[in-house]
């Protein structure tokens, strides 16, 4: 891991097309601005972890229950209707 020290209004350039700028430093946190092409995905790590965990849980649940039961549950039903 590369560790750099930056102050407010200082930037880091990644590759040819991504710039990370420190916008503000406060006692409660650091405000960061990221300038990148629209085709680059930028996500907060805790969101990626939460989605990954939810997906893992869904896979586990689906292996424990039948697809029909899951569909009925999602539709708010307990028995199939014809």
Automatic annotation (TrEMBL):
InterPro entries: CsrA, CsrA_sf. Keywords: Bacterial flagellum biogenesis, Cytoplasm, Repressor, RNA-binding, Translation regulation. The gene is csrA. Belongs to the CsrA/RsmA family. SUPFAM superfamilies: CsrA-like. It is found in: Cytoplasm. Pfam families: CsrA. Homodimer; the beta-strands of each monomer intercalate to form a hydrophobic core, while the alpha-helices form wings that extend away from the core. GO terms for molecular function: mRNA 5'-UTR binding. A translational regulator that binds mRNA to regulate translation initiation and/or mRNA stability. Usually binds in the 5'-UTR at or near the Shine-Dalgarno sequence preventing ribosome-binding, thus repressing translation. Its main target seems to be the major flagellin gene, while its function is anatagonized by FliW. One of its GO terms (biological process) is regulation of bacterial-type flagellum assembly. This is Translational regulator CsrA. GO terms for cellular component: cytosol. PANTHER family: CARBON STORAGE REGULATOR. Its main location: cytoplasm. It comes from the Bacteria.
């Amino acid at each position: 891991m590369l560790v750099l020290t930056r102050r407010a209004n200082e930037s880091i350039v990644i590759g040819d097309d991504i710039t990370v700028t420190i916008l503000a430093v406060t006692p409660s946190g650091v405000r960061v601005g990221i300038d990148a092409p629209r085709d680059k995905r930028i996500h907060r790590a805790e969101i990626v972890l939460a989605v990954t965990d939810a997906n893992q849980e869904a896979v586990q649940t689906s292996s424990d229950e039948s697809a029909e039961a899951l569909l009925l549950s999602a539709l708010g039903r307990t028995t199939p209707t014809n």
